[in-house]
Amino acid sequence: MSDEERVDYVNDHLTLTGRREGLVFGTDALLLAAYVRRGEKSRALELGGGTGIVSLLLATREKVGQIECVEIQPAYAALARRNVLDNGQESRVTVTEADIRAYDTYGAGDFDLVVTNPPYMKTDIPACRSEEKQIARHEVHGGISDFLAAAKKKLRWGGRFFCVYLPERMTDLLTAMRENGIEPKRMTLVCASPGLPPSMLLVEGKRGGKPGLKVTRPLFIGGDLSERAESADMTYILTKGRFPRDYE
């Protein structure tokens, strides 16, 4: 391991090598993987996989049978491949270095499930000091409409789409989903603690689904601000790798 890298220990006994000057995995990745419904034999696709944390969590939890992780940045695609090997998941996880806008390794409708934690900032937002972070956080190589177009192309009819995004861009996400034939079916707002506005948005959609969106109760990551402890729901999610039943 080089001085530019760091190793983190993640849920499910995973070790994850990342880059010190780049993005490291966060709560958004853990929640996204937990939000995905179990489908042991499903064939899944992750768009914009970074170091591979979401794909690895889905594989180790046996939520998917096979998953293809697509990442545009060469350094991160290489790290994702290393992380797959280091965690013994090469039989379940494959990593491809590609632009999601031109990804054509497989044919149309080949996947049962598409999951993504896409860049969520427009390019007119002040730039990051690191080019790696700029590409991961900003829509340098495609916006949410591009990610939904890729999902539509690869997702089979009736297949599921899962995404974590910013609440203030909810309209952009839901509009792009419907324009690409992926109907929003379940949504959860995530707040740091009670009394604070939501900081994340989790959405599940269905390709070709009928209109009808279930908005669950909010998820509070922490309890009361004075306690500085994780909520019971968050403890359940981190322990079980899935959301409590009433969120489904």
List the helices and strands and how they pair.
Layout: E1 5-10, E2 14-19, H1 27-35, E3 43-47, H2 53-60, E4 66-71, H3 74-86, E5 93-97, E6 111-116, H4 131-137, H5 144-154, E7 155-165, H6 170-179, E8 182-191, E9 198-207, E10 214-215, E11 219-220, H7 232-240
Parallel strand pairs: 3-4, 3-6, 4-5, 6-7, 8-10, 8-11
Antiparallel strand pairs: 1-2, 7-9, 8-9
Helix pairs in contact: 1-2, 5-6
Helix vs. strand class: alpha/beta
Strand fraction: 25-35%
Sum up the overall morphology in one term. globular
Radius of gyration, in Å, reads: 17 Å
What's the main sheet like? Answer: 9 strands, mixed
Helix percent band? 25-40%
Number of continuous helical runs = 7
> What is the average of the pLDDT values?
87
N/C terminus separation: 41 Å
Order of helices and strands: EEHEHEHEEHHEHEEEEH
Question: What is the count of β-strands?
Answer: 11
Low-confidence runs:
none
Describe this structure in words.
Helix content is 27%, strand content 28%. It has 248 residues and is α/β, with parallel strands linked by helices. The strands form two sheets. Strands 3, 4, 5, 6, 7, 8, 9, 10 and 11 form a nine-stranded mixed β-sheet that branches. A hairpin with a 6-residue loop joins strand 8 and strand 9 (198-207). Helix 1 (27-35) runs parallel beside helix 2 and helix 5 (144-154) packs parallel to helix 6. It starts with a strand and ends in an 8-residue tail after the last helix.
